[in-house]
């Protein structure tokens, strides 16, 4: 009889532990985080300014807001999933003359990137990106880009941009096809810069159950305003 009571108590304690711990663990294993947005569909209007000039990132315009982040696949016990994080702490500038992008740079505050789970964010900051030592990631344009044919009617076009990505203390050449929208007094740039994490010295800690895929992306949605 006493053994039966003890068994019931143990079962009750385990059930309570599952009820308390199960939901957050399940969320951690299944949540896909917060993906950097794409250019909002139908948000374009005819351009009211030329493309030449000095452009700086602004918070947003209409349905589009400046943000950047990461997307990587994870392999967990018995499943695969995609995980993303993002931040609005982004600064960028462009210099365009005679319809050609001459200079461009974007800096992302990696220490402020968040998903929808604080525990994951702490792990990414402390054990993967090491943001205490490398608090920023920077993309710098290295080759001129012809922007003279970008449409003025509020529709999206695509340009290929070559540059250097500095992240986690290492710099590598990268290339990306980016969507560009001229709308009103703004230019909006959106896309994914492919990265191989080991090229940046980013490793998947051995003490965690999940393994990060070798290839991922740095995600961008940048709203630029023309400076007077």
UniProtKB/TrEMBL annotation:
Protein name: YceI family protein
Domain of life of the organism encoding this protein: Bacteria
Record-annotated Lipid/polyisoprenoid-binding YceI-like domain positions: 54-225
InterPro entries: Lipid/polyisoprenoid-bd_YceI (IPR007372), TTHA0802/YceI-like_sf (IPR036761)
Pfam families according to UniProt: YceI
Naturally occurring in which organism (per UniProt): Corynebacterium kalidii
Similarity field: Belongs to the UPF0312 family.
Transmembrane segments: none
